[in-house]
Design brief:
about 180 residues, 5-stranded antiparallel β-sheet, two-stranded antiparallel ribbon, 2 helices, 9 strands, globular
Length: about 180
């Protein structure tokens, strides 16, 4: 009797997520400022990767049924080469957009310090998570952040209740006029 068939999804166990507005947290952030070599575990092949920030993305809240809360996937925010061959943080890139979310005005204000791994560790934001596709084959290989949708978390509004000058709030005991 033949064994049952199963089409390989190409994800190597990475979750394939499609979340319109996820609240995410960046973890285990590492920065590489020069191209670096990696070895593929499956066949031992070695290849070079561009410099940038690598991290784990955790879904804090999928803003839906919570079925994807806690899911994690690997993400890269890469430096780009300028016309002279130098690696830079380009404003029109995934890393550039992340930098603007973390440090608003970064590309207009030279006094804002450079982005570091410490700035990103534990950083939370809103963004769309979409299936990641191999650019050559089109095969879905996991999940990625849609860089054009990254937005900062808004500070929570604190309700301010006005207290009258006599410090009496309706529903409380009457103030003692002798005090």
């Amino acid at each position: 009797m033949p064994l049952p068939r199963k089409k390989h999804d190409g994800t190597n166990g990475a979750p394939v997520l499609d979340i319109m507005k996820a609240h995410v947290r960046l973890l285990d952030v590492e920065e590489y400022v020069k191209p670096y070599a990696v070895t593929r575990k499956s066949d031992g092949a070695e290849f070079m990767l561009d410099p940038g920030f690598n991290c784990t993305v955790e879904i804090v809240n999928d803003n839906d049924d919570a079925s994807d809360d806690g899911a994690k996937f690997y993400e890269k925010f890469k430096y780009k080469k300028d016309s002279e061959g130098h690696w830079i943080n380009n404003s029109n890139s995934k890393l550039g957009m992340l930098t603007e979310v973390v440090k608003p005005g970064y590309f207009e204000d030279d006094t804002i310090p450079e982005l570091t791994a410490e700035d990103l560790e534990g950083f939370e934001m809103f963004c769309r998570i979409k299936p990641k596709k191999n650019p050559t084959t089109g095969q879905v290989t996991g999940s990625t952040i849609d860089w054009e949708t990254m937005r900062p978390l808004r500070p929570r509004k604190v309700a301010v209740v006005a207290v009258p000058d006599d410090c009496y709030v309706e529903g409380e005991d009457e103030p003692d006029p002798t005090e």
